[in-house]
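Today's session is about reading a structure prediction critically. Students often jump straight to the picture, but the first step is always the sequence itself: look for stretches that repeat, for charged clusters, for runs of hydrophobic residues. Only then move on to the predicted structure, which in these notes is written as discrete structure tokens rather than atom positions. Here is the chain we will use throughout the hour.
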Amino acid sequence: MAREGFKVNTGYGDAADYAVYGNVAYDLNALPKREYEDQPQAERRTKARAYAVNQPASGISFFAAAGFVLFAVMMVFVLLARLQLTEISDETARIESRIADLSEVEARLKIEYEKTFNLTEIEKYATKKLGMIRQGSDSVTFLSMTNVDRAEILVPEETDNTGFLSGFKDFLSSLLEYF
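Below is the predicted structure for this chain, in token form.
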């Protein structure tokens, strides 16, 4: 069945015999046809259908029930989160109204505070109740010195205790001055 232009591999020979030009696929039409048993066509189909039909499952599967339970639990968590959000929102509204009320009180107290420190009232209280007088040009006194200003540096007396113990004692006493 070799056609012209094609070389057939016989399995014997050198590498030139293995060159193939064309299609090396099987020709299925050349194979003999398979004969089926003497069963009618309709019987074969019914048997195939009998094996293909699955029996319906009885009841609910475990995964469906687990999924439903998981869904119910998640919905409960969502509702609880929504409830917490509502409570926090209500508390925020109460706090904001309290802040507004306190801002009004703060403004009123600032006005009262500024009234208490009115300079004219303070001056009136000082002159009438405390007997003070306003400063005038005659209340300023100038000092004139004939000697030149100079500073004297005092030298501390030297002590005989120049050891480590006396230095530590001086250090502690200088620290205690701050307390």
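Discussion point for the tutorial: The mean pLDDT is 77.
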